[in-house]
Amino acid sequence: MNTVGYLGPKSSFTEQAVKRVFIHNKRIAFESIFDCLDAVKNEEVDFGVVPLENTIEGSVTITLDYLIHEQSLPIVAEIIVPIQQHLMIHPNNESNEIKSIYSHPHALAQCRKFLYNHYPSVDQIQSLSTSGAAQFVANNPEIPIAAIANELAAEEYHLTVVDQNIHDYEINHTRFIVVCKKGREQELSISKEVSTKTTLIVTLPSDQAGALHQVLSAFAWRKINLSKIESRPMKTGLGRYLFIIDLEGTIESILITSAIHELEALGCGVVCLGSYPIIQK
What is the mean pLDDT of residues 33-57? Predict the structure, then answer.
C-alpha cells in the first residue's frame, strides 16, 4: 500500500485534500511543505500532497520554488478543495481577551478585512499550517490566543469556534498538487473521467525582443487555452524570470507537443512539471 505525506498536522486543509483521493492509504503528516517534499524526494513516502494556489492569495511560492529550483517532482494530480476559515479559541478563554492570532500566512491574508475590522490591535503570528496553529492554541490554554483554521481542526483539538467563515471573499478554493518521484507517475490511478492540465516551465532566450509574445502566439494560433501564466525569478540576477504556464489538455495532445517543439525552436527552455487529472468534488 502506498504511503502519502501531507502538510500537517492532523485536520489540516491538506489532509482534507488527501482524503479525497487516498482513502485507504497510510497518511503521514509533515510539519512544513519543505519537509513533505523532501520526504518524497528521499522516498520516505510514495506521494506528497501540498498546497499550490489559493483563489484569494494566489500561488504558494514555497511549493513553486521547490519544484523549480530544488527538485523536479512530477505533478500527477490536482485536487481542488473549498476553504472555510474559522476563528477559534481554547474553551478556557474568551474572544474579547485575545492577544494574538496564529495561522498560516495565506490564511491570515485571506481574512485580512475581518481581522482589521474586528481585531485591529491583535498581533498576527504566522504558523507553518492552519492546523498547526490550532494545535498550538490547544496546547497553551493559559495564553489568551486564537487560531484561524477549519472546522475539523476545531474538533480535533477541542477548540471553540467564535467566528465562522471569516475569509474576505465568499469563493475561496485551494489547489493542492500530488507529486511523486520521477519514474513512479503511473502508480497513481484516477479512474473517473476528469479534465486534464499540463504545467510547463518556460525560460525565454536572453535579450530577444518579443520572446514572450512569440511564446503566447505558439499556443494562441493552435487554440490551446492557457488557464494560468505566472512569472517567477530565476534567482540568477535582477530582471531574469521564467514562466509557469498551465495549459488545458494533456501532453499527449499533438497540438501541445507541436507547440512545445515550436518554443524550443525559438530558443526557449521548456520543462514539463506534469500532465495530470484535476479532481474537484
Answer: 94
3-state SS class at 178: strand
164-190 average pLDDT score: 88
Instruction: Give the pLDDT confidence score for residue 88 in this predicted structure.
Output: 97
Pairing of strands 47-54, 100-103: unpaired
- 15 lies in the same domain as 119: no
Average pLDDT for the chain: 92
Residues 56 and 117 in one domain: no
Q: At what angle do helices 130-139 and 13-21 cross, to 10 degrees?
A: 120
β-strand partners of 246: 199, 228
Same domain, 76 and 127: no
- 3-class secondary-structure state, position 156: helix
Report d(CA 87, CA 179) in Å as an integer.
Answer: 31
90 and 76 co-located in one domain? no
Crossing angle between the packed helical segments 211-220 and 254-265, to the nearest 10 degrees: 160
Residues 68, 12 within the same domain: yes
Q: Which domain holds residue 96?
A: 86-163
Residues 74 and 116 in one domain: no
Question: CA-to-CA distance for 16 and 269, rounded, in angstroms?
Answer: 36
